[in-house]
């Protein structure tokens, strides 16, 4: 459909394009000459994710009370986006900038023009062109999503205070540097996941999370709505799910792993759920920000909360209490031999399919313990009747049957990589979390894949030295590690690579009980991931990223986001040149760190040499380095012994193997 539209628009816009090119050339020439007088103001451009192409010119556009937003003739979508942009600007500046249809404009001076009536096939559905001239800003795209992203980039070019909810009385030059950006994403799936079962998060936080995602051009919110610790979505046919299964006995005062299970008669008071009205509101809120919400309904495992109200759906038929914390292994799962299980799930999924316009429904499928299936008469009968080999194939039967049902609702199935066990359902998309191997296998079988390996994408893992961090589930995934991720494994051939739709960061919440903590674990790792999935690999650069990220911290503060600054740990590395000279490099994840170091074995303090560039050593040396902030040592001193010998940097020949 997009292709046809593009062809039609190509003719219509060719004259317009020539005009734009001529204007661009004139502006570039004028800019070149005016840059010769020394009045040039250097702007630091800190857009994240980094755009594919950017050219900066001399001069500025100045937002003022006279600025107007003009939208493509007759476009309701552009009107909406115009109002979205005007609201942000007006809140911060009190300018009262108006939005009007371009056909009603008396002049095109001091205007921001939004148009999705473009025809550049290479830009796809989400790309955009943004041009800032001294008197005019234009954002053009093929589809409204592109204009939305052009607006996000534009907002990152305006002084940070543009994000203030109300004017703070300061005189600000609302200048935007003249430039040209051509930008589009590398991956179509740029996701963040949030588990609201282990801990419940209110609607307002979900919206804040969505706003943050949108700011960094992420476009899929994977909403983990059900799990052993609570069911979180209203299903009209089964009110028990939210009356009973959404609530557990409150053990928030105890560590997750060692919580006492609920005792008979104890009142279940911790929990919550989203009503269908709230879900519709959030889906629409996300849609306005180009974010698709993929709901996850876990099956056949991670489903024991359901047996608090519907024990007959498990193999044992025993009523369970909703778990207060961790219970592992969790062997009570849906009975795959019971027709009632499928009747229940189909009824639930019918309502879910109605609520979420997404093409996809995530059905979980991870970590299903098969113990009960082995001894359950119904499950064993199913294996026999269906000619299945074992319980793995029974799981595959389960998922394939659910896929068939979803297909009847025009929905596609996504599952965690365990759905590979026993054979993949024909059209299933695989979310690869045990590393990338499951994703590779699925792509080689011709299935679509979303990469979310624990190694790079589990944001519930520690991001810095655990001794100085809030308790986490374990693991260690630093900001730099996230930034280094390549979602497309090089072992895949070109055809298989097309199946890698993108990547996703996961926030499991066993150890995360508040919105502030969820923000701390997500930001800035989500921001690093946004550049991984949006920016071409050759434009990704760690040093540039942390410099730009540093500029974003003030924005995050204005938005009241409880971000983590990353790891203060200092990496001590050395390199040897061809002459055998050894130089030492001290690095941290923080931009422009204040590092003091010693080379005599003593602990560094504020008076020790300040690291500004690599330094040479000529003998075996113990390097100690500390990260300082406001005169105080932060966290631990790093230490490394570096040896120097005559062979360093030389081509060595092994004369005798021992
Ligand atoms: C998972 O982390 N169990 C998908
Ligand atoms: Zn069973």
Strand-helix topology:
Layout lengths: L1 H33 L18 E10 L5 E4 L4 H18 L4 E4 L9 E5 L12 E5 L3 E5 L3 H12 L19 E9 L5 E7 L7 H13 L4 E5 L1 E2 L2 E2 L8 H4 L3 E2 L21 E2 L4 H12 L4 E8 L39 H17 L4 E5 L6 H5 L1 H9 L5 H18 L3 E5 L12 E4 L4 H8 L4 E3 L2 H4 L21 H5 L10 H4 L2 E8 L7 H8 L2 H10 L7 H17 L12 E6 L5 E6 L6 E5 L16 E3 L3 E9 L2 E11 L16
Parallel strand pairs: 2-3, 2-4, 4-6, 8-9, 8-19, 9-14, 14-15, 15-16, 16-17, 17-18, 18-19
Antiparallel strand pairs: 1-7, 5-6, 5-7, 10-11, 12-13, 20-21, 21-23, 22-24, 24-25
Brief write-up:
This protein has 17 helices and 25 strands.
What descriptors fit this protein?
binds zinc ion; eight-stranded parallel barrel; single chain; binds acetamide; alpha/beta; disordered N terminus; 25 strands; 17 helices; seven-stranded mixed sheet; 21% strand; 658 residues
- Gyration radius (Cα, Å) is 28 Å
Bound molecules: acetamide, zinc ion
Number of strands: 25
Oligomer: single chain
Q: Strands of the biggest beta sheet: in what spatial order?
A: 8-9-14-15-16-17-18-19
Supply the helix-strand structural class: alpha/beta
Q: What's the N-to-C terminus distance? A: 68 Å
User: What is the count of helical runs?
Assistant: 17
* Portion in helices: 25-40%
Describe this structure as you would to a colleague.
- With 658 residues, this protein is an alpha/beta fold.
- 30% of the residues lie in helices and 21% in strands.
- The chain has 17 helices and 25 strands.
- The strands form six sheets. It has an eight-stranded parallel β-barrel, surrounded by six helices. Strands 1-7-5-6-4-2-3 form a seven-stranded mixed beta sheet.
- Helix 2 packs parallel to helix 3 (144-155) and helix 4 packs parallel to helix 6.
- The termini are far apart.
- It binds acetamide and zinc ion.
- The site of zinc ion has 8 residues, from helix 9.
């Amino acid at each position: 459909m997009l292709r046809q539209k593009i062809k039609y628009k190509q003719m219509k816009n060719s004259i317009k394009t020539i005009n734009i090119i001529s204007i661009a050339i004139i502006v570039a020439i004028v800019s070149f000459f005016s840059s010769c007088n020394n009045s040039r103001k250097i702007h630091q451009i800190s857009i994240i994710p980094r755009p594919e192409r950017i050219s900066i010119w001399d001069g500025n556009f100045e937002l003022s009370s006279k600025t107007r937003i003009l939208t493509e003739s007759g476009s309701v979508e552009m009107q909406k986006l115009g109002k979205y942009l005007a609201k942000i600007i007006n809140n911060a500046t009190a300018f009262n900038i108006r939005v009007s249809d371009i056909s009603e404009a008396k002049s095109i001076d001091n205007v921001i023009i939004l148009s999705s009536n473009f025809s550049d096939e290479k830009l796809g559905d989400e790309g955009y062109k943004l041009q800032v001239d001294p008197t005019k800003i234009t954002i053009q795209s093929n589809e409204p999503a592109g204009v939305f992203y052009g607006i996000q980039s534009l907002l990152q070019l305006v002084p940070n205070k543009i994000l203030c909810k109300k004017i703070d009385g300061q005189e600000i030059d609302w200048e935007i540097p003249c430039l040209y950006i051509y930008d589009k994403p590398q991956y179509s799936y740029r996701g963040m996941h949030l588990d609201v079962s282990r801990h419940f998060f209110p609607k307002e936080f979900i919206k804040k999370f969505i706003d943050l995602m949108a700011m960094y051009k992420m476009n899929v919110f994977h909403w983990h709505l059900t799990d052993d610790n609570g069911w979180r979505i209203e299903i009209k046919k089964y009110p028990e799910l939210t009356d009973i299964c959404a609530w557990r006995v409150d053990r928030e005062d105890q560590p997750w792993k060692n919580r006492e299970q609920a005792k008979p008669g104890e009142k279940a008071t911790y929990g919550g759920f989203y009503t269908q009205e709230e879900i519709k509101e959030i889906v629409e809120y996300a849609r306005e920000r180009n974010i698709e919400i993929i709901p996850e309904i876990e099956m056949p495992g991670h489903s024991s909360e359901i047996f608090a109200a519907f024990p007959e759906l498990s193999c044992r038929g025993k009523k369970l209490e909703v778990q207060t914390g961790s219970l592992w292994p969790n062997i009570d799962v849906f009975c795959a031999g019971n027709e009632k299980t499928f009747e229940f799930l189909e009824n639930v999924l019918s309502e879910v399919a109605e609520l979420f316009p997404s093409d996809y429904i995530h059905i979980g499928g991870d970590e299903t313990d098969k113990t009960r299936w082995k001894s359950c008469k119904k499950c064993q009968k199913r294996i026999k009747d269906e000619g299945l080999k074992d319980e793995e194939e029974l799981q595959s039967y389960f998922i394939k049957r659910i896929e068939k049902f979803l297909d009847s609702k025009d929905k596609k199935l996504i599952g965690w990589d365990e759905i590979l066990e026993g054979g993949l359902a024909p059209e299933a998309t695989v979310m690869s979390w045990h590393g990338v191997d499951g994703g590779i296998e699925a792509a080689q079988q011709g299935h679509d894949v979303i990469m979310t390996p624990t190694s790079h994408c589990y944001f519930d893992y520690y991001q810095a030295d655990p001794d100085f961090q809030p308790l986490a589930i374990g693991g260690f995934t630093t900001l730099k590690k996230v930034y280094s991720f390549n979602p497309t494994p090089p072992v895949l051939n070109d055809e298989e690579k097309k199946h890698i739709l993108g990547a996703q960061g996961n926030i499991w919440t066993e150890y995360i009980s508040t919105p502030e903590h969820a923000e701390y674990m997500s930001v800035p790792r989500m921001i690093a991931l946004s550049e991984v999935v949006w920016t071409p690999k050759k434009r990704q650069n760690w040093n540039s990223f942390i410099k730009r990220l540093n500029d974003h911290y003030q924005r995050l503060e204005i938005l009241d986001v409880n971000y983590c600054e990353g790891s203060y740990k200092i990496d001590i590395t050395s390199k040897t040149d061809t002459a055998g000279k050894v130089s030492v490099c001290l690095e941290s994840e923080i931009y422009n760190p204040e590092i003091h170091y010693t080379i005599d074995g003593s602990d560094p303090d504020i008076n020790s040499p300040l690291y500004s560039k690599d330094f040479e050593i000529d003998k075996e040396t113990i390097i100690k380095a500390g990260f300082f902030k406001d005169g105080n040592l932060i966290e631990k001193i790093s230490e490394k012994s570096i040896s120097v010998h005559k062979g360093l940097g030389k081509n060595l020949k092994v004369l005798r193997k021992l």
